[in-house]
Design goal:
The chain is of the alpha+beta class. It has helices at about 1-20, 30-35, 45-60, 80-95, 115-120, 125-135, 255-260, 265-290, 305-330, 335-340, 345-375, 380-385, 395-405, and strands spanning about 35-40, 45, 100, 105, 140-145, 160-165, 170-180, 190-195, 205-210, 220-225, 235-245. Helices cover about 45% and strands about 15% of the residues. α4 (about 80-95) packs antiparallel against α9.
């Protein structure tokens, strides 16, 4: 599409020069993990690294790209699901760079779900207070659903909210814990999901509470070091944290609706990113196989090199069609219908794309030999980042269970 050419031109004019100046390339070449990580400060991202990402987003916003997916009322371009899938794939297929850092989910075209969550679930007062601050980058929410003893079982949790008035003001007292509250070191608030009624396993009775990080009783614990550093994934404890009633987002009995609000959009876009990164690994392997000439002939002349890449290219082509068709169908119906009619297709796209990129990165290392194993090539970084998505955003087992539920009639679908 014409917009992809527009993005490419912007990258070359604004982002690539920024990436090259002041040795900013250290965040993307073989020094990347060390340059990004404050090893003696809990393994958190270095300030210089996050400042660079912030400047990238500022330039992209000023050029009219960052809010592409948002409605015009928020300065966006009403970007469709299909357009966003194509953009995410295209940017990831360009390889590592400031234009689209996979590890941070930070791109010149943002995946800005929180303002729309507030628009669709918030009160008028919350919309007026939260949305402008979010778009200015002054308010950042983390996501507090997973717990130390509960992960994919979202309707089971230990965190509890109890109705408690304070100084005559109605509110809630929250106690519990959360894990993987990504971005807590820089965030202002956490979306904490807590049960206040109902039985374990019930979707009803769980509220979404907007908890300020500076509220008494909120404590950020250990940052968990991960396969791909730096880390911004801590444990979070909540001890007698009191919140007023207006800190609830949406129906207090149906808080999981907020958690599920963008699950399909996130999964299809993340699948497109994985597909783009996989295509980059395939393309680089084909290029190298043509250039490298051991024993006097190109690597590409060997079918042992060709055939694994042929299989990866074939799967990428098939996935591209499924991702595009699913995203296009999502554009024709409201979210409730997407959840009812397309959830299995989104899961197919997501788990297969995440597997594909891991396979493609591994194959790229093999084709490139010792150099592929080194950090002077980006394949190990791509593998380490995308391996997480076979667990997060709904593990591949959860995705397959969804597909199986539709196939065998345990989940209704038209």
């Amino acid at each position: 599409m014409d917009y992809l050419a527009e993005l490419d031109a912007f990258i070359e004019a604004e982002i690539r020069p920024l990436e090259q100046q002041d040795d900013n390339i250290r965040f993307f070449d073989h020094r990347r993990e060390h340059a990004r990580t404050a090893w003696d400060n809990q393994g958190l991202p270095r300030k210089e690294w996050e400042d660079l990402l912030r400047e990238m987003r500022r330039r992209a916003d000023a050029a009219g790209h960052y809010r592409f997916a948002l409605p015009e009322e928020y300065g966006g371009r009403n970007g469709s699901h299909l357009a966003m899938a194509c953009i995410r794939e295209h940017l990831a297929a360009r390889g590592l760079g400031l234009h689209n850092d996979l590890q941070n989910e930070s791109s010149i075209v943002g995946n800005l779900v929180q303002p729309l969550m507030v628009r669709d679930f918030g009160t008028e007062e919350q919309k007026a207070e939260f949305i402008p601050a979010m778009l200015r980058g002054e308010m950042l929410w983390t996501f507090g659903l997973t717990e130390e003893d509960h992960g994919s079982d979202a309707t089971w949790m230990d965190t509890r909210a109890v109705r408690t008035a304070r100084d005559g003001r109605p509110g809630w007292l929250i106690n519990g814990n959360k894990m993987w509250t990504t971005g807590s070191h820089a965030a202002t608030h956490c979306m904490v999901f807590a049960r206040h009624s109902g039985e374990e396993g019930d979707a009803k009775g769980i509220g979404c509470f907007i908890v300020p990080y500076d509220a008494p009783g909120v404590e950020i614990g250990e940052y968990l070091w991960t396969f791909n550093m730096p880390t911004d994934h801590p444990r979070l404890s909540l001890t007698d944290v009191w919140l007023p009633d207006d800190a609830v987002l949406g129906d207090v009995d149906r808080g999981l609706a907020a958690a599920q609000h963008f699950v399909h959009e996130n999964r299809i876009r993340q699948a497109a990113s994985s597909l783009g990164a996989a295509q980059y690994c395939i393309d680089e392997s084909v290029k190298y196989a043509k250039e490298r000439k051991p024993f006097g002939k190109p690597l590409a002349s060997n079918q042992a090199i060709q055939f694994p890449l042929v299989e990866l290219q074939t799967e990428a082509a098939m996935l591209r069609q499924l991702i595009h068709a699913t995203a296009a169908a999502m554009d024709t119906m409201p979210k409730t219908e997407v959840a009812r009619r397309l959830s299995d297709k989104v899961s197919m796209c997501n788990y297969r794309a995440n597997r594909l990129v891991c396979d493609a990165a591994d194959r790229a290392m093999q084709v490139h030999g010792g150099l592929g194993y080194s950090r002077h090539k980006p394949f190990e970084h791509i593998y380490r980042h995308h391996r997480r998505y076979r667990i997060t955003e709904g593990s591949e087992e959860i995705q397959m269970r969804k597909i199986g539920g539709v196939m065998f009639g345990y989940i209704g679908v038209e």
